Amino acid sequence: MDYVDRIGVVKSWKARFFTIWAGQQASLFGSQIVQFALVWWLTQKTGSATVLATATLVAMLPQIFVGPFSGALVDRLSRRWVMVVADSAIALVSLALAYLFWTGGIRVWHIYLAMALRSAGGGFHWPAMAATTPLMVPERHLTRVAGLNQAMSGALNIVAPPLGAVFLSLLPMHGITGIDVFTALVAVAPLLFIPIPQPARAEGSRSTYLADLKEGFRYVWAWKGLLYLMGFATLINFVVNPAFSLLPLLVKAHFGGGALELSWVESAWGIGMVAGGLLLSVWGGFQRRIYTSLTGVLGMGAAILGVGVLPAGALYVALGLFLLAGLMNPITNGPLMAILQSRVAPEMQGRVFSLLSSLVTAISPLSLAVAGPLADLIGIQPLYLIAGVGILGLGFLALLTPAVVHVEEGRAPVEAAPEA
């Protein structure tokens, strides 16, 4: 019997879940449009690489520092209302930006502050939504839903930048930021009317916030399969980020391409993500999700390794390899998300997901700091060779680690109580 069967939402899960899911996707679309517009506004107004680098940093740091602490609140509070408050707060930030653009009072530091606040809101929203999904979706469909999420992520990466450019040509900046306000309201509306089951806390539990926070760390530390899986995910991001952060230089310096060729490569990756996500949503993966995820890791590693050994004239082969790497990305991440959603105890999921997000995000500044000096020392293309070998090595190491291979036989989910 599915976990969701036991809390009585199977019969109506599709209508309830996908109504909320559609609103969340609309909000993500609005956020990406606004993010593109804000970065372009900074580019036009300042032309400063330092300003753009600072904007990237201020958009990243809140999720690193908020993550370990937001999860405990997500698990203590109603996840539905956490998402309502987070979406509404982000909408208010966008509304404030719209006012500043409309009055002409906008300054660069306002953009920094808005990016930081929006990022902090995301640090609460993402773990709440990730932890809500297994409370509404039958376990056997979690991998398919994760694949659909990956496909939508790829589609947004393809569609949002050109649409952002179109909106910039048609609307003033206060109009564009208004789009995010509208899409956030679209996301909030279903949450006000559709109940979401809430995990039951231990009977009589009066634990403090700090006790819950410590319990989350102890939970991950005690479950070696989960701990190793999070470690592997963090290390994979560490070896991949330096290579992909310098993709424009690879296209220009090694393949002799320009902006058009760079757009082809980025589109190939995005199309691959959409295709991989749709494939996973239809196929559902192997019966043991961990084998599906590690197949994706090995496939992605092989594709990136291929880019690392291509000769300069093989741009079209590189397009195929980036397409393959993009396809393998959802095959890797979708089952991993489904494993966590199905095996981590529901009352712990906010803490686990926020901790994972913090680890993966925190490794990015470190790997990006390594990218420039390492590329100057050995060149751009060898970074892809290193990344490919590193991913393959980590994938095979995971296959040889019993705690990882048997992670799905670990902690079983427990009963949830309907939200009052």
Provide a short characterization of the protein structure.
With 420 residues, this protein is an all-alpha fold.
How would you describe this structure to a colleague?
The protein has helices at residues 13-46, 49-76, 79-103, 108-136, 142-170, 173-193, 209-222, 224-245, 247-254, 259-283, 289-309, 315-343, 349-378, 381-399, 402-405; strands at 198-199, 416-417. It is an all-alpha fold. The chain folds into two domains: 1-195, Growth Hormone, Chain: A (Up-down Bundle), CATH 1.20.1250.20; 211-409, Up-down Bundle (Growth Hormone, Chain: A). Residues 1-10 and 412-420 have low confidence and may be disordered. The protein has a two-stranded antiparallel sheet with strand order 1-2. The relative contact order is 0.15. The chain is globular and about 60 Å long.
How far is it from the N-terminal to the C-terminal residue, by CA?
24 Å
| CATH uppermost class of the largest domain | Mainly Alpha
- Number of spatially distinct domains: 2
Under the CATH scheme, which architecture of the largest domain would be assigned? Up-down Bundle
Q: In the CATH hierarchy, what is the superfamily of the largest domain?
A: MFS general substrate transporter like domains
Mean pLDDT value = 83
C-alpha Rg, in Å?
21 Å
One letter per element, helices H and strands E, the order comes to HHHHHHEHHHHHHHHHE
pLDDT < 50 stretches: 1-10, 412-420
Lateral arrangement of strands in the main beta sheet? 1-2
Structural class: mainly alpha
**Total DSSP helices:** 15
Quaternary state of the chains? single chain
Question: What fraction strand?
Answer: under 5%
> How many β-strand stretches?
2
